[in-house]
Amino acid sequence: MLRKITLIDNDIPQLFARIYKGPEQYDGDCRAESILEERRPSLLTLTHNGERVLKLIKPRTWHEYFKLFWFHSRVSKEIKGNRTLASIGLRTPTIYEAGISIFPARDFRYIGYYCMENLSSAGYQEVYRYYKSLDDNSELRARITENLIHDLLEMRRHSIVFSDLHLNNVFADEQGKICWIDTGIIKFRSDSSARFRKKYDQSVIRLLDFYRSEKVMTDQEKQLVRQQCLFSDQSGQK
Predict the structure, then answer these.
(1) What is the rounded distance in angstroms from the CA atom of residue 56 to the CA atom of residue 72?
(2) Which one is the CATH code of 2-117: 2.30.130.110, 3.40.50.1240, 3.30.200.20, 3.20.20.70?
(3) Is the dihedral of CA 63, 69, 70, 76 positive or negative?
(4) Among 21, 152, 191, 216, which residue's beta carbon has the most beta carbons within 10 A?
(5) Which tens digit of pLDDT belongs to each residue from 204-229?
């Protein structure tokens, strides 16, 4: 099934081959209504009257064009990661449909897309924004930190490494419940393998070191994450 997506700055739709379709999804042309955020690897737009978020994924290198053909692209990986995290009980956005670009295609700007629920309309926002706005002693902040650690430990228990771990990829609601986006993950066979433990620790340390130029997490919060989540050096002395 083909999907036509019309971009904001272009009347010519890009064609995609739809690889996943959930229930209650519109089958006609899909028009991006407004830009939420444009990053180097992707473009986020609103669609369906603001009810859904359309993520259009850009190619980082020419190799990604070929990965489309054996379903090893970032589109496929993020969808698989979304389902894997949901299967272990973690909250992820509902994905309504996804597709990969037809090659060659006119105006081939994106290698794929997926359409998901709008977390903002569901009462979620980035944990980064919560940490920047909440008082250090806030009860909500403490609940978010507790739930963040809980989810990281669940990933650890299931031998999962979250590839791009930072607080802009973690959302929370007003009760402190966590939701994970940009769900590129690596699933290992065992949590006892040396390679998994190394990769997992590197991912967590990346989270703790990600915002070096600004104060986001407190020293106490970082220490809690180190002590409870890291395999190596539980004291936090790296």
Answers:
(1) 16
(2) 3.30.200.20
(3) positive
(4) 152
(5) 999 999 998 899 999 999 999 999 99
Instruction: Note the pTM of the prediction, 2 decimals.
Output: 0.87
Which one-letter amino acid corresponds to residue 74?
A: R
Q: Domain map of the chain by residue range?
A: 2-117, 125-229
The answer to whether 27 and 91 are in contact (CB under 8 A) is: no
Give dist(CA 155, CA 162) in Å, integer. Answer: 8
Q: Cα(74)–Cα(80) distance, rounded to whole angstroms? A: 10
Residue of 156, 135, 163 lying closest to 221 (CA atoms): 135
Question: Would you list the DSSP string of 28-78?
Answer: S-EE--EEEEE-SSEEEEEETTTTEEEEEEPPSSTHHHHHGGGT-SHHHHH
Condensed to tens digits (0 to 9), the pLDDT of residues 100-121 reads 887 654 456 788 898 999 999 9
Which pair of structure tokens corresponds to residue 85? 């995290």
